[in-house]
Design goal:
By secondary structure, the protein is of the alpha+beta class. The chain has 18 helices and 27 strands. Helix 11 packs across helix 16. The protein binds FE2/S2 (inorganic) cluster. FE2/S2 (inorganic) cluster binds next to loops.
């Protein structure tokens, strides 16, 4: 007998349906049983359209059918891709539905002999006040004790005084005592919805998620460029600004708090929610962003030996940080690991599940710093490497962020260049995914050699190669023009910047593998976290040597896992405990002065040669 559990993986959350199966069912049947919307099965399960593709992530499934052999390539089959209508589970199975136009979803099916999936425990619970037993001479327990029941009471139980003053008058009415982690927090009318705010503070972008705590679902979000950007584009320049004077540190803190405060206000107005209906603010981000929000001194992060003020999970009163819309809330700061492996990575490890899937797996977040974690058995090692801003376009001649008009994909053949731009408008520059694509194509077509040298117009008749101010450049646009004056192009220096950035990240990965004593070929999964990871093509990342070529087929983008981790933390006790455990079990490896890292860095400066 099987049980099946459906877990939305991106907007979340948690298992919400369990079905017992008496007989063998195809994955397509199971997907329909669980009401998963958006799954593409145009022929209705007749096996003729080949569109109902799923990826078997782990577990045992039925043998490949002749029909599947006809409709799937051997490469797809070896990557675990199957047709949902022709395949059924044989054991605990995890499948990935992200081929389809639905939020990335995961189904876990557990056989009765295997792991049983337990119901996830919410952090916010309600106790009906009209169901409390009456007091009597035999039962003189206090109202609050009766209302809490078996919920944990601890020395640090902080109960609002307003609740104590109104509890008696609500006993016997259609109201609920609302508890957070077992501690009474307020009284809510029956049916009154409760919410949390989960925030991902990225160095570039801030996203506030409004989460319905009853279902653990994100119902809306508010995002924008990080308001601290005007004080510095990256972590180091922001630390430099913050450490110049107390006033400047306060300015940075005010900027981010006020941005999140405005986001919460906007979400509340959109959904007609009062501040009292919001139970907490939960925040993930890199260690510097967490420090700047908390008003902590960041000077220790910038200089060796890189000692932050805090990495533990902290709870800070919102009013003390300057929140005005929800001053009475607690702000929860997710745990970090070290100065350059932040709460965004602990959240990402939890969301990717690399710490529990029992296979060697990597989580990689590419930004100005490449933060990465490697999990083998129950051990997690992690590190951070300074990649510089090339992939954010900052030191590239026509580099730009992922904005409208940025060239985001590039393809070459012998005489043409094709590209796309974000928003499909005329190109204004080239963003990180376009830069990686373009360099990969230049290597593939031999216009750049493995040392990174760009051919000159004398060495090739490709119309993209021209001179500009006496130096060869590769024009992505305006190939028909005589000169490169009106083109978006890459210079030799741009290509060198890409080499430096990719060498730092690739060397970090090699160092982790070496520390763990695991070969590239034995890595089962490479998860790309963060917005940038969602846009780059793994094939191009492999071509330039940013990630090992062997791992391209095992690479998967998992989106904003920092934000998703914050959402999970805010809703579910099990997830919150898991994230705290992840942080405690991560072992940080410092790369500055690491001998092997230096050697790998020099090796990885070269682009991969053809096999
Ligand atoms: Fe068409 Fe499976 S639904 S092949």
């Amino acid at each position: 007998m099987n049980t099946i559990t459906y877990t939305k993986h991106n907007t979340l959350l948690g298992e919400y349906q369990i079905k017992k199966l008496e007989e063998e069912r195809s994955f397509l049947d199971l997907i329909h049983d669980h009401g998963i919307e958006g799954f593409d099965a145009p022929c209705g399960g007749n096996g003729t359209c080949g569109k109902c593709r799923i990826t078997i992530v782990s577990g045992s499934v039925s043998h490949v059918t002749e029909n599947e052999k006809k409709r799937l390539s051997s490469r797809e089959l070896s990557a675990g891709i199957r047709l949902a209508c022709s395949c059924s589970p044989r054991s605990d199975v995890v499948i990935d539905l992200s081929h389809h136009d639905l939020e990335s979803a995961v189904i876990s099916a557990a056989s009765s002999g295997g792991r049983q999936v337990s119901r996830i425990k919410p952090r916010i619970t309600r106790k009906p006040l009209d169901m409390l037993p009456d007091g009597s001479l035999e039962d003189q327990r206090a109202l609050l004790s009766k209302a809490i029941g078996n919920a944990s009471a601890s020395l640090s139980m902080k109960v609002p005084s307003a609740l104590l003053s109104s509890l008696h008058s609500h006993i016997g009415t259609e109201a609920d005592l609302v508890l957070k982690d077992g501690v009474p927090k307020r009284i809510a009318h029956r049916g009154e919805k409760l919410y949390s705010i989960a925030v991902d503070i990225g160095t570039t972008t801030v996203v506030c998620y409004l989460v319905d705590l009853e279902f653990g679902e994100v119902i809306d979000n508010f995002s924008g460029l990080n308001a601290q950007k005007k004080f510095g584009a990256d972590v180091i320049s922001r630390i430099a600004y913050a450490t110049s004077s107390v006033e400047q540190q306060v300015r940075l803190q005010r900027a981010i708090v006020s941005q999140i405060d405005s986001g919460i206000r906007a979400l509340a107005e959109r959904h007609t929610i009062s501040p009292e209906q919001i139970m907490q603010i939960t925040i993930a981000g890199n260690t510097t962003m967490m420090h700047l929000l908390a008003g902590a001194d960041t000077s220790g992060i910038a200089a060796s030996p890189f000692i932050p003020v805090f990495t533990d999970f902290l709870t800070v009163p919102a009013v003390e940080l300057g929140f005005t819309f929800t001053p009475n809330l607690e702000v929860e700061l997710l745990p970090s690991v070290a100065a350059y492996v932040g709460a965004d990575i602990t959240a990402g490890i939890h969301v990717a599940g690399i710490h529990v899937d029992n296979t060697p797996s990597i989580l990689l977040d590419i930004g100005t710093n490449g933060e990465m974690a490697f999990s083998i058995s129950d051990h997690i090692i992690c590190c951070s490497t300074a990649a510089g801003p090339a992939f954010e376009g900052a030191n590239i001649t026509f580099g730009t962020g992922g904005v409208r008009g940025a060239i985001d994909t590039v393809k070459l053949d012998d005489h043409t260049v094709s590209y796309t731009t974000i928003g499909g408008i005329d190109p204004i520059g080239i963003c990180g995914s376009g830069i990686i694509d373009c360099v990969a194509e230049l290597i593939r077509t031999g216009l750049v050699d493995y040392t990174g040298r760009l051919l000159t117009p004398e060495e090739t008749d490709h119309p993209g190669i021209k001179y500009c101010d006496g130096d060869p450049v590769f024009c992505i646009t305006a190939l028909d023009e005589e000169s490169a004056d009106h083109a978006v192009y890459l210079t030799q220096k741009d290509i060198r910047e890409v080499q430096l950035a990719k060498a730092a990240i690739a060397a970090g990965l090699q160092t982790l593998l070496s520390e763990a004593g695991v070969a590239e070929a034995d890595v089962e999964h490479l998860y790309l976290a963060g917005g940038f990871g969602s846009y780059i093509r793994p094939e191009s990342a492999g071509e330039i040597g940013l990630i090992p070529k062997q791992l391209v087929a095992r690479t998967k983008a998992i989106g904003n896992s920092s934000g998703e981790g914050a959402v999970r933390f805010s809703c579910w006790e099990d997830h919150a405990h898991d994230i705290l455990t992840v942080a405690q079990h991560c072992q940080y490896i410092e790369l500055s002065g690491h001998r092997e890292f230096q050697d790998f860095y020099i090796q990885e400066m070269l682009f991969p040669m053809e096999d």
